[in-house]
Design a protein that fits this description.
CATH class of the largest domain: Alpha Beta
Shape: globular
CATH architecture of the largest domain: 3-Layer(aba) Sandwich
Helix content: 25-40%
CATH topology of the largest domain: Rossmann fold
Radius of gyration: 23 Å
Largest sheet: 6 strands, antiparallel
Distance between the termini: 46 Å
Number of domains: 2
Number of helices: 16
Strand content: 15-25%
């Protein structure tokens, strides 16, 4: 049976930009952003946005044009997104760690005409420009731009200026004092169904695809989630995920600028810095992949005292083991609420409500990912596309105002994923009789061992039950005898004496024999995406090529 959240009528709101402009007029002096000792009011951010929009417009960017923005969580990142929307352009947020092949694909696929990036990408962008039919116009923004201090973790040398392109702050300095409100699309003509973003997926099944996110998708996310979390105006939010990722975009940036919440920018996630900024600014809400909470837990200085202000903690982007949630709460007194979303659903579509605790499925030990958010319907279907009964495993299908318009320039892929009954997520799970939703794993991650189906996540959850395990990832690789076999990669807790034999004995105790990994590799770190998802493909490739 489809599960639909019932929390009252949805807000009929304008775009995130319109909501931000209204808040800037209503409370111009209220804090919009904080960035390493600097504070921008709503009026200051709006003025900065108008000036950046002028620079974009004078570079030839107009309605419907695409602009690649490859920055970390900085004030310029925020202003550039709003600036694109002021002139009717489409923003393409991109990980600043992107490499030449990836960026070339994104630039060609999107047809972008302008790129705003950190100077550290100069070599990559130079190589990309040489391979394109016409070179990209390039603007640079350093991590220290508009910061109140230079105490920024991971920041590259911001004094190095590439030999091509233009520094954005230099371009802004050349503007005169006239009002800089360069709108190609006036407020009266802004269309809710126009594209706001093209967000490229991780490309787990081929080259990255550009999810076309409309203004109304982003507005739905921002106005729905602020109520779901119970947040009020002026309550600070800290950016744990990157804004260039859909979680940071929808759950941090859009939520804050649309609803008048101050946004505490962290540049990049670094545990010591995050703890310091939480202590300084006392944010009330934060969302991150569970790996970020694991990293925070590993900090000796972390305590309930310096995390106490954050009453709303949520985790999305990767599977959340029950053991980590329990141990985090025992140590810090804060419960981590589960969350689920995709780029194609404009971030969150299923979340554990504030004040509720996710149930644990007795059979699998899986922690529920929550319930459908207001206005969204979640169904589970079998391999033939028929609705599955409660408790029956099938593919999750999501329908609602957050579902994007499809994939940029890819009609076949759009038709395959976006169907009449909703977005076919590729995630496998089930619902219970009370409407709680559970994820088993990704369809593509299914491993068949001697004819038996094994979901790696179930084995990972079993490993997390061992007190010595900090992080775990399980992959399947080809095996002549079994067809496939399971390999476990484990990061142990600091100082733990756990070894491979102990992990093997633990798995044999809690899992069926065919679900037990045949190999255990103790590693220092697991490879992850910028959003915290473990890259199982890289682990599998390292084992296969190293065999």
């Amino acid at each position: 049976m489809p599960i639909t959240s019932d929390s009252g009528p949805l807000l009929e709101a304008a775009s995130v930009l319109d909501l931000f402009e209204a808040s800037a007029r209503a409370e111009p002096d209220a804090m919009a952003l904080a960035y390493f000792g600097a504070v921008l009011s709503r009026a200051e951010l709006n003025k900065l946005t108008e000036r950046v929009a002028t620079v974009f417009a004078e570079a030839g960017v107009g309605e419907g044009d695409r602009v690649i923005i490859s920055l970390q969580n900085t004030p310029i990142m925020c202003a550039a997104l709003l600036a694109c929307w002021k002139i009717g352009a489409i923003a393409i947020p991109v990980n600043p760690m992107v490499r030449t092949i990836e960026l070339t694909h994104l630039a060609r696929d999107s047809g972008a005409m302008l790129l705003l990036a950190e100077p550290g990408l100069a070599e990559v962008i130079g190589e990309v420009s040489e391979s394109l039919p016409s070179p990209l116009d390039v603007l640079w923004s350093s991590p220290a731009d508009l910061a109140g201090s230079d105490d920024i973790p991971f920041a590259p040398d911001h004094e190095t200026v590439p030999p091509f392109g233009t520094r954005l702050l230099d371009a802004l300095a050349t503007l005169d004092d006239r009002p800089h409100d360069q709108r190609v699309v006036s407020p009266d003509l802004r269309r809710r169904h126009d594209l706001a973003l093209i967000c490229y997926t991780s490309g787990t099944t081929g080259p990255p695809k550009g999810a076309m996110i409309r203004h109304d998708n982003l507005t739905y996310q921002a106005t729905t989630m602020v109520r779901w979390y119970g947040l009020a105006a002026h309550e600070p939010v800290i950016t744990l995920p990157p804004i260039f990722h859909i979680t940071g975009m929808g759950q941090n940036f859009a939520l804050c600028v649309a609803n008048g919440l101050p946004l505490i920018l962290t540049y990049r996630f670094e545990p010591k810095t995050v703890l310091r900024l939480i202590k300084q600014h006392r944010p009330v809400y934060g969302i991150a992949a569970i790996t970020a909470f694991v990293a925070l837990s590993a900090e000796p200085d972390a305590s309930g005292a310096n995390l106490g202000s954050v009453r709303a903690l949520f985790s999305g982007g990767a599977a959340v083991p029950v053991g980590i949630v329990d141990s985090f709460e025992q140590r810090f007194g804060s419960y981590i609420h589960n969350a689920y979303g995709l780029t194609e659903s404009t971030s969150a579509c299923i979340i554990v409500p504030m004040g509720e605790r996710a149930p644990v499925d007795a059979a699998s030990g899986a922690l529920s990912i929550g319930r459908a958010i207001p206005g969204t319907t979640v169904s589970v279907v079998d391999d033939d596309g028929r609705p599955a009964a409660a408790g029956t495993i099938g593919e999750l299908v999501v329908q609602g105002p957050g579902i994007c318009a499809g994939y940029w320039g890819k009609a076949d892929e759009t038709a395959h994923a976006f169907r009449a009954d909703g977005l076919h997520t590729g995630d496998v799970g089930f619902t219970d009789q009370d409407g709680w939703i559970f994820i088993v794993d990704r369809k593509k991650d299914l491993v068949v061992v001697s004819g038996y189906k094994v979901w790696p996540r179930e084995v990972e959850d079993a490993l997390y039950l061992h007190a010595g395990v900090r992080e775990a990832a399980v992959v399947g690789i080809p095996d002549e005898y079994r067809g496939e076999t399971l390999i476990a990669f484990v990061v142990v807790q600091a100082g733990s004496p756990v070894n491979e034999d102990q992990l093997r004995s633990h798995c044999r105790h809690v899992l069926s024999a065919y679900k037990c990994p045949t190999e255990f590799h103790l590693v220092d770190v697991l490879p992850k995406t910028a959003s915290g998802k473990v890259l199982r493909r890289e682990l599998a490739a390292s084992r296969i090529h190293g065999a």
